[in-house]
Structures
1.
Amino acid sequence: MRSLKAASILFMALSLLTLPGCWSSNEIEDLAIYSGVAIDEGDLSEVERGLEEKGGSYSKQNKITATVQIVPLKAGTKDEVKGKTSPYTNISGAGDSLLEIFRQFSLRLNKPIIGHHLKIIVISSQLLKERNIKQVADFMLRDNDIRPNVKIFVSQGEAMQILTTKLPDEVPSFFINDIVKNQFRSSKIMDPVQMTNLDALMYSKQSFILQTIVQAKRQLAFSGAGIIKGETGKWIGHLTEEDVECINWLTNASSSGIIKANNEEGDSIAYEVKGMKTRIRVHTEQDGRLIFQVRVESKGRISEDWSVEGNPSLSSYQKEAEKLFEQKLSMMMDHLLASMQDRYKVDVAKFCEIVRIQKPQLWKKVKSNWDETFSESTVNLDIHVNVTDYGSTTK
Amino acid sequence: MLSSIQSHIPSWTVFFQAFIALVIPILIYRVYVRLDNLGEDKLSSSGSANIESSRDPLVADYDDNMQLIKSRIGANSDVVIREVTVGGVVKAALIYVKGMQEDHLLNMRIIQSLKEMDAQIPEQIMERFPGSSAHAVSSATEFSQGILIGFMALIIDGRKEGLLITPPQCPSREVSEPVSESLLRGSRIGFTEDLSINTALLRKQGLSEDLQIRSCLVGQTIQRELAIAYMDHIVNPDLLREVNDRVAQIKLDYIAESGYIEQFIEDNYLSPFQQVQNTERPDRVIAALLEGRVAILLDGTPFALIVPVTFSMLLQSPEDYFERWLPGTLLRMLRFGAAFISLMAPSLYISFISFHPGLIPTELALTIIETRQGVPFPALIEVLILEISIEILREAGIRLPKPIGPAMGIVGGLVIGEAAVQAGIVSPFLVIVVAATAISSFSIPVYSAGITLRILRFAAMLFAAILGMYGTILFFLLIVCHLSKLKSFGVPYISPFTPYRWSDWKDFFVRVPIFLMKKRPKLMKTMQSKRK
């Protein structure tokens, strides 16, 4: 009798353990994974407009439009997906709170969306012209589903369009995420700004750049970068692809890429960078202005030469070519410096780091007003290009 | 004042949780202690000792003796009593059990020599018999037991003792390769069912005066011979005493297999882990003896027991030492990995699929989602379906006759897996997980350790299904807690991991070159620490 009682108590204790079931369990196929987010100016999409006409709305102001890219929402066999349907689905909603918009999606989707696998966020430059990036990205920073290594881009034109780019059998957000890996081939791709970097940059009030994505005829491309002014957190302008390249070289972030120059006849001659090293020293003048001594050293090979007469195997010809490349490079650098110092009056090439490390006392003084201090400083360039190689042919 | 304190007093829910957190562990502990006490009296519960002393001596009169013997065992149909006369004068009888004395030539010679013997000098009769094990017994009990064990016995009129003349020639299996522990490299000899052959196999491993084999009888209704083997001057005397004590305490009418002994002498009968290792390999036994362990051999079974056992022994194979140290180490690491996979893979699958989709790499997550579309069950049920069918298949594979066993296993596995995927009951990814689990569990060299992991795997799956990764980690911690508390004959089960003995790590995860392993394991506390 006693053992029966003990057994029944044991049984009840065991069932107590199993009865609560699977806490917070959610099968993976019952979730909608979103891999990309695009944030635009508040504008109702066609679907939403239709819904609103039927009374499907809530109290809100349409300040932003968020688009999430869900992969793969469609239930079906592989063949079906390959043949007819696209591998992703986009859904947009407008409102004045990202979280509210996201929760509102629960009314329109059969599965809850989860952000664990979010790869990229594209913010339209139009939106950032008007709004501080902190306001836009605040939810992403706080949400603990979303990883801190999400890459952030700006778009020329509607960000939503970037995510709807029609690429055969490709999910645009993964596509963009993968383009970044081509950095070793092109120095026009900058190190992506991740969510963690963004957090730091925003709070230190530094100006920074975000890679720009452009789109035409449903094809996309990385092109240059948008400048975010540190104090206001707003988009103030665009840097060209060459500017971004120069920034990568100045900050030693990249040692790849090509420099293409034209000789006197107008023939193209291309120099493939094999190594690029930049050293910057900072001095102060009597009047308090800063002088940056920038020494750029590069070695590489002549990979393409259109000139019919030229002979790259001759060292005299190489010397000539080096001159051409040095001129071209300093032209590119000058263009960048002009953009930074004169046009936008910001430092996005990390000159501040140089000052901070080399002149910490000075940095404390100029920190609060750095962008202006930088704009008034002088940058002296000293460029050395060394052709080490001319490829597999002599002529 | 009071109100400022009041705000710090937690609400009743906190107190309730604290109460639960206090009471449940105490309850579990009490249940455990209760169950453990059940095991305490298992050694002494089955009646008092039945020591039969030689109270019924054989007498000098032939007829009286015959009567006594006949009344004891004569009614058996397989007991043959053959009466002869020694030298044509003295009455005598040969008694033996059919089937135990199959050497007809020998039998004829014995009868012949009895007939031709001079009846007047019966004292010298012993020397005349061929064979070395002829001896005299004076007690009727011992005498009849001798007959039943298989001796050919002789009673002669006028002698107050019976003679057991030729030893049993019971049919036995040939020495063959151990089935459950076959190796690619290493000796192919396994124990047989015959204890004397088994001890001989141990002796044949090499010459040593230190190898001691002591035997005794176990079982009360049916007695069997049990031998305890150890190395003198190496084994710790306390350990040896403990083994002897525990073996002496076994009270059971019949010991069918060494598994019975294992269950009687183990430390904790509630633990899923075996605390006694069984092996069919003489080389494994000798290696263990040289480490200061004790082996127990039982007549009638090819499985010898080795005590004490540590966790790492269950994942070691003699091949680790026969191969060079690098491959040996690699294989051993592989087995540790396989044990982990075999224990955890399905529960990790459940926790990733049901609880933590964010921990799967994105591409894999997408593939899984695609393959799991249309699977109607939650991950736990899905895994259980496939795991249980694999377990059934494995169990069935043992029963199936040899020629169709492997074919059936492959066909069953393939067909069930493939069909279940086709039918949309399970996802293809799960089939990979379950297959990897099954293969991993086959790589564990000790069969019974594999069973332990199979049991625990199901527990791990339940934990994972309730609490996800958190539950899986809790389960792992629980296992580690249990293991660190478990002891086998006084030796901590997961030593040298804890208690930490660096010098023993040479033969733990890695197997260092043999010339570096000059000392016996510290954990065994041997009399002689150096291998010489």
2.
Amino acid sequence: MKTIIEVRDLKKDFYVGDITVHALKGINMEIKEGEFVAIMGTSGSGKSTMLNVLGCLDKPTSGSYLLDGISMGELSKNELAGLRNTKLGFVFQSYNLLSRTSALENVELPLFYNSKVKPRERRERAEAALEAVGLTDRMHHMPNQLSGGQQQRVAIARSLVNDPVVILADEATGNLDTRTSYEIMALLQDLNSKGKTIVFVTHEPDIAKFMTRQVVFRDGHIIREELVTDRNNAVELLKALPVEELV
Amino acid sequence: MNYTNSIKIAVSALRRNKFRAFLTMLGIIIGVASVIVMLAIGQGSKKSIQDQMSGMGTNLIFAMPGAEQKGGVRMGNSDAKTMKLTDVDAIEKNCPAISDVSPEVRSSGQAVVGNQNWPTSIYGVNNKYFNIRKYTIGSGRSFTDTEIQTYAKVCLVGQTIVENLFGKTDPIGQTIRFKSIPLLIVGVLGEKGENGMGQDQDDLIIAPYTTVQKRILAITHIQSIAASAASEALNDVAITQLTESLRNSHKLKAAEADDFQVRSQSEMVQMFSSISDIMTALLGAISGISLLVGGIGIMNIMYVSVTERTREIGLRLSVGGRGNDILMQFLIESILLSVFGGVIGITLGIVATQITASIMSWPVVISTFSVIMAFLVCSAIGIFFGWYPARKAAGLNPIDALRYE
């Protein structure tokens, strides 16, 4: 299996006034193609900082980070933007969809910043991505006409549309109820089974059980790293949910 | 970077907030419209002054006695008796650039016909005066050289006199008394209307200068000289020749100052045009301020919009938008707002100008210059006032922007 993410002795410090906060204290991590990795930890553990670095939104203080063979340390701001545009997909806890903009146009958004993609291709790829998340019939709905789960699926379609090497999800089920969370997890498991690499940040242990591997952060260190043995299957769990929760 | 995409993104961002976009444009719309209207009114009044002035004869040159000195005591102009009929003869002989010249003597007083009376002025002139001042003879005739030589009691009257003293009866052949002197009306002047200063040019009696000199004023000098240059181009030459001729006939030494003043109509036109230019500039400046306020309105809204859309900016940055893409988006938004507002404002301004013109019957001139200027100023406002908020948006940190509440 090809290595998508390779992190070596990565450190990140923040300077708040005179105090230096060591958010990441030498992280070593590897994520291979096709993995579904949970990054876990309480708040302040450094998992969000880790995600920002993995997402090329923030540069590490020291250490190296290779994304799909590209070292991000030497890249300029604009080159990092290009990397986010072509190699990464983001899913956020609060969906971050553009209001008063149709689902289709929201999904098209990343391709607007890729000048190689022609308008026609952009439209086709956005439609395909929405189809992949099962929202073909909601393409022209505005976000306020969609449920939370549907909005998150639009966001997932948006993260898929540029065919990224890895999808980074930040507490993607944090705003959703159990049933909808399971639906989203079913979708992500489906995408993962088709070969997508996914990194999922969460603090909920039962959500982390849907993934193939767990990486637990505490105080800027990785304290535990293990493969998930009794992995949950979201589709089966959905069937097992009590009927009244359907209402 | 892809400009087509930047424009598309900016357009769709504006379309999401149609009402707010319209309100933002309103400042620019009103500013541009008022600039167009004000400049049209200013330039219209300038043009109408110029038209009326040239209606009085642009080739017109006046010479009148200047300040006189008697043993070091400067006397007023009105008392000066320095101008003589011989001056007029000399001008006729010596000035090839002057086509017509006439002496002028004036008196104000009450004109009486039967039981009606009317305050007016009588002008004593020669036959060429009509041509110089662009008066036409509406009916009847002008006076003859014999009538001038014999101080004949004949005159022509303007339309205002006819209206006030004769009503509907034909004045020709009737007698009008001016300062107790009965004058036979031989002709009626064609209507001329007001001049640029609002003076009624039809409220006058024109008689031979000899008649006014001898019978009404009892003087031998003349009060002023009216002349016209052979053509507009020869205006300056004519003024020089007339000045030279007058200095010669007044026997002035080279070191002595002129004892007369020469005024030309084109000077007056220039003077009034410059007054009107100042007025136009003033009106333009006032409406320019409203345009500036409109620009600040755009900046304000764009600035608020950047703060309000921080998360959107964060998202755009995270899906691969570069700082420059964001800068372009916000800059294009503000340029679109101001240019689109400018186009609406120009249209509205032209419509408002036409309405003003038809309701107030003011003269208006919409110049291409003011339209192009307004448009360019709008674009400049869009760039200038959009730049700062756009810079702010482009400089946002994606992590902070994404988590902005």
